Amino acid sequence: MQTTIEAPFTLSDADRELINSKIEDLIKYEKRMTQVNVFFKKNDGNTSNGILAEIRVRVPGSDVFAENTAHDAIKAFSEAYNAVKRQIKDRREQINDHRSEVKEINEIVNDNF
Question: What is the pTM of this model?
Fold first, then answer.
């Protein structure tokens, strides 16, 4: 999996490590991730002196995306990360529910024929 972190300011090594560790944590929920892009933008217009964090996770099918604005880059990233994590968990749950429904249908059909 490829990870890209872009910011118009310098991120400390500790901040980069935190971001990378949280992204690696997402693999527990979605093993098919191919790429994660994290972008930071300053003064995006929503909040004065705010920092916008955007996270895009590339997975087969449709991408998962979230963004958040805060006065601190790591706070903005953490909020966006929580949204991405929730979306990935919901997506995984939806896939698993669909598979269990198909399994039940197959069992019913096999029992009746």
Answer: 0.81
